[in-house]
Amino acid sequence: MKHVLIGGTSFCGSTVMSLILGTADGAANVGESHWLIPHDTKYSCHYCGPACQIWTRDFRQRLEADESNWYPRLAERLGSDILISADKSHTHINRLDPDHDHTALILFKRPGNFWHSVNKRRWRSDSLEQSLTRWAWLYQEFLDQAYAPKGGKYFMGVETFMADPDRAIPLLFDTLGLGGTPEQALRYWETVQHYVGGNFDAYDKLKRRGEEALQLSPVATDEKATAQVAALADHPAHAMIEELQARCLLGG
């Protein structure tokens, strides 16, 4: 089984990226698989809803009782030898795949755009400094040599990707050893994907707002949030973003 795992912070674009990768030939995208348990969680398959015949109550109860071989079992359930997941955080990664038997795609936003994504959600109470410290700590863990997934680790800046997806998608698929075309990837909503979690329901959005709402577009920079981040001139996040951009598959 080949497993491509998307890592990163909250609001890093992992939902869209998992859907894009989920269009690859023979691939199946589970999304944020940790939301499959507990079995009675409100999270269910975005395509089917609670009646999904793949993520059934019985299967989810078995996952909850025994988390061993987590990702191979999900791939088998989806009938695919290529699994895409977006469990993102080290906590979930180390718990669900302690042997790091995956290829990692680490997504990152620039600190100002990350802060914008956090700050606009009024239910988040973190301060700017708390948010940036968490952001920097998480990416330091991904950059650290101790994190060495068997399939390698690759970094992608969301702003860079979204600015030129026609160029980015072939490079990304080739790097990750996936087959597919930019055309099918850019129209990811046409592929049936039994994914859970994430920041939005692509199929619901398609019904309510149409295809235009799902098309990829450049990430707008929030000037106010960017200025607030810049004001913390000595914060480690500034050095961290330089290192991440230097590692970006598409360049900084």
Key features of this structure:
252 residues, alpha/beta, five-stranded parallel β-sheet, 12 helices, 12% strand, globular
Could you give a short description of this structure?
This protein is an alpha/beta fold and 252 residues long.
Specify the structural class.
alpha/beta
Which regions are unreliable across 5 or more consecutive residues at pLDDT < 50?
none
Describe the main β-sheet briefly.
Answer: 5 strands, parallel
Strand order of the largest sheet: 2-3-1-4-5
Coarse shape: globular
Range of strand content:
5-15%
- Rg, Cα atoms, Å: 18 Å
Secondary-structure element series = EHEHHEHEHHEHHHHHH
Number of helices: 12
Structure summary, number of beta strands: 5
Helix content: 40-55%
For the record, give the distance between the C-alpha atoms at the N and C termini, rounded to a whole number.
32 Å
Task: Average the pLDDT over all residues and give the rounded result.
Answer: 95
Task: Describe, in plain words, how this protein is organized in 3D.
This protein is of the alpha/beta class. Helix content is 43%, strand content 12%. It has twelve helices and five strands. The protein has helices spanning 14-21, 57-65, 70-78, 90-96, 111-119, 128-143, 158-163, 165-176, 182-186, 202-209, 223-231, 237-247, and strands at residues 2-7, 27-31, 82-88, 103-108, 153-157. Helix 5 packs across helix 11 and helix 6 (128-143) packs parallel to helix 12. It starts with a strand and ends in a 5-residue tail after the last helix. The model has no long low-confidence stretch (mean pLDDT 95).
